[in-house]
UniProtKB/TrEMBL annotation:
Taxonomic placement: Eukaryota, Metazoa, Ecdysozoa, Arthropoda, Hexapoda
Ranges of residues in domain FYVE-type: 152-212
Biased composition (Basic and acidic residues): 256-266
Gene Ontology BP terms: endosome organization; endosome to lysosome transport
Protein name, per record: Pleckstrin homology domain-containing family F member 2 isoform X2
Gene: LOC113521685
Source organism of this protein record: Galleria mellonella (Greater wax moth)
Amino acid sequence: MVDRLVNSEANSRRIAMVENCFGSSGQPLAEQGRVLVGEGVLTKMCRKKPKSRQFFLFNDILVYGNIVINKKKYNKQHVIPLEEVKLESLKDEGYNRNGWLIRTASKSFAVYAATATEKEEWMAHIEKCIEDLLRKSGKQPPSEHAAVWVPDNEASICMHCKKTQFTVLNRRHHCRKCGSVVCGPCSSKKFLLRGQSDKPLRVCLQCFDELSKERVRPPNQPQTLTNSPSKPVPDTAGSGGDSSADDDDSEDDDERVNTEEKHDEGFTSYNGVKNGFGKKVTTV
């Protein structure tokens, strides 16, 4: 009984520390039954370039934010309910190694760990939390997820018309359905994607045509529209505007430290599991 009380108090202190690190920019995280499972730095693939982000895994949510002062202050807090999450491992390609996709109905993106062991631990802990949540709630995992956006630097011309070259005047836009990088004329239509927003979002002409057909197709006919690009790539899923929609991926982040630093601590677990560097950590 005493050990349980001590563990509960330790967990409460850790959650309070996470809240304090986000300051007034973050939402309260302390809830009955919520436990901080672990934390660590991962490289999140953003629209412009990869960026280091601090991630906190709880037993029911995944929280991440921009690193302002390492281990002391974070901002632009994002909270993802784990019941909505589906993980998908990525194959190593060139410099992109030890990665996986975090998919939800409203936002999907790729993250990368420093080592294969760290990736394995992150994925195992997240999957276990999701499994426990779904078992307790009796819910089914989500069947549809937002597309992962093609990064800007992988498309020098429109992926739809194959003609328009992107310049300062011809800006890149992203289709919210397939994630492709397209020009303005090829993404002039909008469609209501209820999993992502309550307002119509920019989609490419091809997806608009297919979505329009899906809307009028009889219920007994199968859907054929795919929901993701052929190659898993970074995202900046967000509101219905152009490529600069997501604050998390903006280029004016007020990061006052170099966040492209090496990950020197791996995944820090708070349930007695060793992290990627073999260091035993506090058990809750």
